[in-house]
Design brief:
Oligomer: heterotrimer
Distance between the termini of chain C: 52 Å
Order of helices and strands of chain C: HHHHHHH
Largest sheet of chain A: 2 strands, antiparallel
Number of helices of chain A: 24
Number of strands of chain C: 0
Order of helices and strands of chain A: HHEEHHHHHHHHHHHHHHHHHHHHHH
Structural class of chain A: mainly alpha
CATH architecture of one domain in chain C: Up-down Bundle
Largest sheet of chain C: none
Strand content of chain C: under 5%
Helix content of chain C: 55-70%
Chains: A mainly alpha, B mainly alpha, C mainly alpha
Strand content of chain A: under 5%
Chain lengths: 576, 100, 190
């Protein structure tokens, strides 16, 4: 029963991807989501956790499905988000001539992510990992007519390839079972590349060149969560290598703060959200570093819901502005599109971790664990992140929905196909915290803190609130302050707007030296070719010219050869 | 009249045929004649060895060679006619199309 | 008696083959080849292989040599003088001759004596041919048939219903025959 539901959930997206059509993938995803809900109900009634081996490959590698609390949770979560994104894309991409292809790719993307989360072995996980990477390449570069989109897709793919390389190293090391530190570092680097942690974060803002539904899917449910999921899956192993966990914690903390700061200085609405994702992924990474596996998973899921909500809302905003993505040119949209306003408000309140919204439960939990473990550096980083989150959330809300200088003119009505997923996600963002904490967490994950979150009188909330307040002060009350600060510290401003010169650094550190290296290699290869194989070719050609003269085509010459052979043969006979 | 005599005779005939074949530069038809001479020496060898060894196999083989020789002449002469039809001559030296 | 006959026939064979290959006129060559066939068939008779002796004459003289003559007469080729390569073939032939001589004379051989059979040669041959060698014999027939088909196929010209010897026209009556009206007492000047 359980298995059939799982298989149904898993392979309906693949079926949808293989059948061309606009509505087939949506229908498949709807059925798949229904099946996944049944799956979670069945599982809750009778929890079990054992991988089911379907068949063996090359006699040694298992292919199957792992059924445990984590995979069931992830399957349900991914199906639900993906289904809503599909419905949304039905309307959002309606004017694109290649919409059917787009829907198919989305379904395929979902399928590979589902394969990833249900993998019982690292090899199968790798299949899903690669599949997700390839699909993200196609989807980010879906509008490949734009040069920026093609480049961004390539960049995302290459960064992912770096992660894949480390993943393979990790698999090999894990298989040998030696050098646990090396294996841990490999897996950590793989996860960092996939989850856009600092150092590998450059592709994430770039991926905003893809259509908005793709962004929503990538940031909420599929691509970037793969790295976190990998570490969650490997947590029993990682706990045996404490230094790796410490490193992961610090990487997460730094990424969280970095993402939040970068988000504050971006102008592009989607880039702000992208950096926000990096920041939240950093918090998850930090939770893993603290050993709070279930808390990280919890945050992954709540974040998935509210980030999907934010992206889909941002997509509607961009649609309403007819392609405009610069928040400084928006404004006063709140009155004209109240549904979107409400949805985005819910999303941002969730993001900042306001009480009763989804983000509150998971974020508070992680910070509380940090507090209890006494890792105050991480706690400080997280609190600063919370402050910056409040700040940039307010900035976006103010710029887009309040603000004075909005683009005037009439906006079209928001189509129900666009607003329905928003409403559903808003409700889920409100509810998922309670559901997760009270029901699902208690039942399936046995979350570590049953008591209400009471860390120092909810200091996180107060810090976030402070961020929101400062943001309101900056933009709502004293709009000139930000301009004044910008003119006072131009170098600092440029530094942040240029995304900490990440692109230039990447160019200078990796791209340029690699190009030089490639040129040198090309030259060397030319020499080797010239003196190695080509020398043989030339020699063979020369010999061929000499020997070719023997072949005149005249019958009598061939006859001479024949007879001379006979003479030689007889001579041999005589001499013997 | 021993076996050796026949061996010597047939090898002399064979060498004559071979030299004739090599010397000839003009006529395809003369090449075919030389081939006939070569066949003749083979016949001589087969039949004499058959007679001296008391084994009929040699004569049977000679018979087969006779048949194959006849077939060869028929095909060779039809090729000659074909060649003549196309080039209006039968010079062996001109046939150099086997050159790779 | 047989010794003398053998030497006569051997000399005849060698002479005829040499003449067949080195006469300048191809027509004469074919005639000498026929002579060589006769000599060899005489040798076969000496060896007691009557059947093959007669088959050689019937087949080679009656069919092969005739075919040669036929082709020679229909194609206008016998008039061209034959050119020869001189030195290299002679050298190679001499080498071969020396080698064969050395091989045959200087090496020791067990020389068998001529076996006299009581049975008639044709009878014995027939018994072997139609029992033990029946399949090769049949295959030889197929080879001959194939050769015939090939010969016809090679010379087949498309779009012509009736086979006709086109090259008859190559040798016109005027090539061979000149009709003159000689003046009395003066003869013909060429």
């Amino acid at each position: 029963m359980l298995l059939s539901f799982l298989i149904l959930t898993l392979f309906l997206p693949l079926f949808g991807a293989l059948i061309p059509g606009k509505y087939v993938p949506v229908g498949c995803l709807l059925l798949g989501t229904l099946s996944s809900l049944l799956l979670v109900i069945t599982f809750a009634a009778d929890p079990m956790s054992s991988p089911v081996i379907l068949f063996k490959w090359m006699g040694a590698i298992d292919w199957g499905l792992s059924i445990d609390a984590m995979s069931v949770t992830m399957v349900t979560f991914i199906s639900l988000i993906s289904c809503l994104v599909h419905v949304y894309a039905l309307e959002y991409m309606a004017e694109d001539s290649r919409q059917r292809q787009f829907m198919g790719l989305l379904s395929l993307f979902t399928f590979f992510m589902l394969i990833l989360v249900t993998a019982p072995t690292l090899i199968q996980l790798f299949v899903g990992w690669e599949g997700v990477g390839v699909c993200s390449y196609f989807l980010i570069g879906f509008w490949f007519e734009k040069e920026a989109a093609a480049k961004a897709a390539l960049r995302a793919f290459i960064m992912n390839r770096v992660g894949d390389f480390f993943f393979i190293l990790g698999i090999v090391g894990h298989f040998w079972g030696t050098f646990p530190t090396f294996v841990g570092v490999s897996f950590l680097l793989a996860a960092m590349a996939k989850s856009a942690q600092i150092g590998f974060h450059l592709w994430l803002p770039g991926s905003m060149e893809g259509p908005t539904p793709v962004s929503a899917l990538i940031h909420a449910a599929t691509l970037v969560t793969a790295g976190i999921f990998l570490l969650l899956k490997l947590s029993p192993f990682l706990e045996s290598v404490p230094p790796i966990l410490t490193v992961a914690g610090y990487v997460g903390g730094v990424t969280a703060l970095f993402g939040a700061v970068m988000a504050f200085f971006q102008k592009d609405l989607k880039r702000i959200l992208a950096y926000s994702t990096a920041s939240q992924l950093g918090i998850m990474m930090m939770a893993i570093g603290l050993g709070a596996v279930n808390a990280a998973l919890f945050h992954l899921i709540t974040h998935g819901f509210f980030k999907a909500l934010l992206f889909l809302g941002a997509g509607v905003v961009i649609h309403l502005y007819k392609g405009e993505q610069d928040v400084t040119r928006m404004g006063a949209l709140g009155v004209k599109a109240p549904v979107v306003y409400a949805a985005m408000l819910v999303g941002f309140l969730s993001l900042t971790g306001m009480p009763f919204f989804a983000g509150f439960f998971s974020k508070e939990m992680i910070l509380e664990i940090a507090f209890h473990q006494g890792s105050f550096v991480l706690l400080t980083l997280a609190l600063l992140t919370a402050f910056m989150t409040g700040l940039y959330a307010t900035r976006v809300m103010w710029r887009v929905f309040h603000g004075g200088k909005g683009k005037q003119g009439s906006f079209g009505k928001v189509s129900p196909l666009l607003s329905t997923p928003l409403v559903i996600l808003s409700l889920l963002s409100l509810a998922i915290g309670y559901i997760g904490y009270a029901v699902w967490g208690r039942l399936l994950l046995s979350l570590p803190f049953p008591a209400p979150l009471s860390f120092s009188g909810h200091i996180t909330v107060w810090v976030s609130f402070a961020g929101i307040f400062v943001g309101y002060a900056l933009y709502g009350v004293l709009p000139h302050t930000s301009v004044f600060l910008k003119e006072k510290f131009p170098a600092l401003h440029t530094f942040f707007v240029q995304e900490a010169y990440g692109d230039s650094l990447c160019q200078g550190l990796f791209v340029k030296p690699f190009q030089r290296f490639a040129k040198a290699m090309a030259f060397l290869e030319g020499r080797i070719d010239h003196d190695g194989p080509m020398a043989f070719v030339r020699g063979a050609r020369r010999i061929h010219h000499i020997l070719g003269r023997l072949q005149t085509g005249h019958i009598c010459h061939a006859l001479y050869g024949l007879v001379l052979g006979l003479v030689a043969l007889l001579l041999y006979g005589v001499c013997q | 009249m021993t076996f050796l005599h026949f061996l010597i005779l047939s090898s002399i005939v064979f060498i004559i045929g071979l030299v004739g074949l090599m010397m000839n530069r003009r006529h395809l038809i003369r090449a075919l004649l030389a081939l006939e001479v070569l066949f003749l020496s083979v016949h001589l060898l087969f039949v004499s060895s058959s007679a001296f060894l008391g084994d009929l196999q040699g004569q049977v083989m000679s018979l087969f060679v006779l048949g194959v020789g006849a077939a060869e002449v028929a095909v060779g002469l039809s090729l000659l006619v074909l060649f003549y039809r196309r080039y209006q001559r039968t010079d062996v030296d001109d046939i150099a199309q086997l050159k790779g | 008696m047989t010794e003398i006959l053998f030497y006569m026939l051997a000399v005849g064979t060698i002479g005829c083959t040499m003449a067949a290959l080195f006469m300048p006129q191809v027509m004469e060559s074919v005639l000498f080849l026929i002579g060589a066939f006769f000599n060899v068939s005489g040798l076969f008779l000496l060896l007691g292989a009557e059947f093959l002796a007669f088959v050689l004459i019937i087949l080679n003289v009656g069919a092969v040599a005739l075919l040669f003559l036929f082709i020679l007469m229909t194609l206008n080729v016998s008039i061209t003088k034959g050119g020869f390569y001189k030195k290299p073939p002679m050298v190679i032939g001499g080498l071969l001759l020396i080698e064969m001589g050395v091989f045959l004379i200087l090496k020791e051989h067990t020389v068998p004596v001529l076996v006299k059979t009581t049975q008639s040669n044709t009878h014995a041959l027939g018994e072997v041919l139609y029992t033990h060698y029946i399949f090769p014999f049949q295959i030889m027939g197929v080879i001959l048939l194939t050769a015939m088909i090939i010969a016809v196929g090679l010379l087949w010209e498309k779009g012509r219903r009736h086979k006709r010897q086109e090259h008859q026209s190559d040798v016109k009556a005027s090539d061979r025959l000149t009709l003159t009206n000689p003046e009395r007492g003066k003869g013909i000047k060429r």
